[in-house]
Structure formats: structure tokens, C-alpha cells
């Protein structure tokens, strides 16, 4: 009988959350300090109200000192020295789950720097470093991909996008059917729901964690189209596809257009939240839509504290809170 890995839904209990402290000046358009402050606030939220241990990668002693100063005193934050590119642990680390025995396993994709666009030193080593440290069995998948491109409900249903998985900059000859076969050989999967594409101006070519997330086994949340927000047609297609697949669909407002310091548009999303054990950390952008988004996510995760944390500075580097976190599931 073939062993397959179960990737939990993010609302299931976590042993810890893996995060990496940003340090590359060139990644942040002169905004490194603000990005570090955003990650520090995320760590405080997860380790505090989130009731979850944070395992924070730091490059060296100087970066550890800066991280400690930014985060403050917390018994739930561990600092670990490691080589890594920057802070995007959702994509550079493997997706962690459980084998049928209950032992920890890891779904490991090949990594090429988001289609060769953003190569960073040591990012290709993070996956092996983490699985060695955790003594997790590796389920190697011969597909170039990142963790933010795949969303699980914990019971075999997954979400993804053509624009990322089948992009010629990652997998030039891959088909939907071939990817599903590769995934099925390693992961407990019943169905894979495909969206054509993600948000415009998304550095990742359309990671699904920016457009749709499971909030329960049979329910997903996405952003509703709005005439004042970008990506209207994309958001309508996502909502329709979720409903067509029989899922309960909850909706968030779509943020209005947000720009980087140089005026370039950014792929702002409220879907890029992180679900900790006792809280949900939600990206906010200092705009009127923030309040409604927090209220809708609170409705979706009754019993968890919903914490809005400013994410505009982090978004300048390419993502938000789901992009920089990788949960380690608790023992079943």
C-alpha cells in the first residue's frame, strides 16, 4: 500500500510556526527596517494571542540582536541561526504534514527562485535544512513550485492556479493531469480545484494564497469583485469556480489599488492571513476596507482572536503574512 502525506488545514493545531527574519537590503527597496518591524509584529501576534511557538531563523548574531530588540521579550520565540535568502518561508520551506503512522513528513518541490525571477542565496537549501532538523521524511515531487501555490482543506481537496503551476518559467511541459498524478503519488488527494490565474502584479505569477483560502473543510473565502478595486474579472472567476465545486463561499472586500513607493501597483489581498492556534493574523493596509475584512474573517474563525497587522511595508517585497509563515503541525 502506497504511503501518502496528509497536508492539514491551517486551522488544525500547530506545534510551531517557522518564520525567517528579513535582512536583504536589495529585496526591500530601501524599506528593510519597516519590513523587519512588520515581521516582528507578526511574531508577537503568533507567540502571544496566537498561543503558538515561533521558530525564527536569523542569519547571524547581529541579525539576532536586531530581531530580539524588535520583537521584545517572549518565551515563545526561539532564535535559530541558518542560511536563507530572505523571509519567504511559505515558498522555500516544504509543506509539512503527517504520514499514516503519525510521523512528520514534508512535501518537497523543486525550487528555482519563483520562475528564475528572484534568485536569493541559500533559498534552495532551506527545505533540506528544515527536514533534517525536524527528522521529517521527504516526499520529493519533481515539479518546480512554491508552497504558496497550493492550499489544502486537510481532507484531500486542494486549490491552485494554472498561471503558477503550469507557467513556462517553472514547468514548461507540465499539464494539469500530469501535476495531479505527481501530487497523488505523494499526497492524500481527492480533488484539485484549478483557477486560471491569480492577481495582477503578483510577483509569484499568481499564488493561490493571495486569492482563495479554506476556512473549513467545506468552505473557502475569497474577495468579492468591486468596481473600485483591481482584478474584478479574476475575482469573479474565482468566486464562480469555488461555487461550481460545491464549496460554501465566504467573501471579503477587495482592497483598493495600492502602490509601492516608486508608484508600481501591488497585489494587495486580505486572503494572505495566517491561522495560528488561537488567533488569525490578517494583513491590513491603512484603508477603509480593512475594518470589513477583519469582521468577515472573525465570522469565519469564530473562537479565534482576529488581529490586523499593517502589511503594506511587507507587501513591497512581494507578499504578506501567509507568505512568510510555515506551520509545523502538532502530533496527531
Short description:
By secondary structure, the chain is of the alpha/beta class. The chain has helices at residues 32-47, 61-71, 89-92, 113-116, 126-134, 162-165, 176-184, 232-244, 289-300, 312-315; strands at residues 14-20, 53-58, 77-81, 95-98, 104-110, 137-144, 151-152, 157-161, 191-195, 212-216, 219-223, 248-252, 258-259, 265-266, 274-275, 279-284, 305-310, 326-329.
What does this protein look like?
The protein has one domain (14-329): L-arginine/glycine Amidinotransferase, Chain A (5-stranded Propeller). The protein has 332 residues and is α/β, with parallel strands linked by helices. The model has no long low-confidence stretch (mean pLDDT 95). Helix 9 (289-300) links the parallel strand 16 (279-284) and strand 17. The chain contains 10 helices and 18 strands. It has helices spanning 32-47, 61-71, 89-92, 113-116, 126-134, 162-165, 176-184, 232-244, 289-300, 312-315, and strands at residues 14-20, 53-58, 77-81, 95-98, 104-110, 137-144, 151-152, 157-161, 191-195, 212-216, 219-223, 248-252, 258-259, 265-266, 274-275, 279-284, 305-310, 326-329. The strands form 6 sheets. Strands 3-2-1-18 form a 4-stranded mixed β-sheet.
Amino acid at each position: 500500500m502506497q504511503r501518502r502525506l496528509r497536508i492539514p488545514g491551517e486551522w488544525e493545531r500547530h506545534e510551531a510556526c517557522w518564520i525567517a527574519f528579513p535582512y536583504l537590503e536589495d529585496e526591500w527597496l530601501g524599506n528593510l527596517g519597516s519590513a523587519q518591524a512588520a515581521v516582528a509584529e507578526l511574531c508577537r501576534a503568533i507567540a502571544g494571542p496566537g498561543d503558538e511557538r515561533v521558530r525564527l531563523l536569523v542569519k547571524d548574531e547581529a541579525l539576532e540582536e536586531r530581531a530580539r530588540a524588535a520583537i521584545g521579550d517572549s518565551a515563545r520565540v526561539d532564535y535559530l541561526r541558518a542560511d536563507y535568502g530572505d523571509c519567504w518561508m511559505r515558498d522555500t520551506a516544504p509543506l509539512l504534514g503527517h504520514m499514516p503512522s503519525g510521523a512528520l513528513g514534508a512535501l518537497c518541490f523543486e525550487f528555482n527562485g519563483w520562475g528564475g525571477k528572484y534568485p536569493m542565496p541559500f533559498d534552495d537549501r532551506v527545505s533540506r535544512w528544515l527536514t533534517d532538523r525536524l527528522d521529517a521524511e521527504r516526499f520529493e515531487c519533481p515539479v518546480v513550485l512554491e508552497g504558496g501555490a497550493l492550499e489544502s482543506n486537510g481532507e484531500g481537496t486542494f486549490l491552485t492556479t494554472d498561471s503558477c503551476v503550469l507557467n513556462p518559467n517553472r514547468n514548461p511541459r507540465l499539464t494539469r493531469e500530469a501535476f495531479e498524478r505527481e501530487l497523488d503519488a505523494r499526497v492524500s488527494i481527492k480533488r484539485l480545484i484549478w483557477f486560471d490565474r491569480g492577481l495582477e502584479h503578483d510577483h509569484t505569477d499568481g499564488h493561490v494564497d493571495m486569492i482563495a483560502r479554506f476556512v473549513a473543510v467545506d468552505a473557502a473565502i475569497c474577495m468579492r469583485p468591486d468596481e473600485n478595486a483591481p482584478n474584478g474579472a479574476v475575482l469573479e472567476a474565482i468566486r464562480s469556480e469555488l461555487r461550481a465545486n460545491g464549496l460554501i463561499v465566504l467573501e471579503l472586500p477587495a482592497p483598493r489599488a495600492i502602490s509601492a513607493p516608486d508608484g508600481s501597483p501591488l497585489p494587495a489581498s486580505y486572503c494572505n492571513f495566517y491561522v495560528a492556534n488561537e488567533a488569525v493574523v490578517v494583513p491590513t493596509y491603512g484603508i477603509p476596507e480593512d475594518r470589513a475584512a477583519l469582521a468577515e474573517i472573525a465570522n469565519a474563525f469564530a473562537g479565534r482572536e482576529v488581529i490586523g497587522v499593517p502589511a503594506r511595508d511587507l507587501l513591497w517585497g512581494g507578499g504578506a503574512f501567509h507568505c512568510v509563515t510555515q506551520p509545523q503541525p502538532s502530533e496527531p
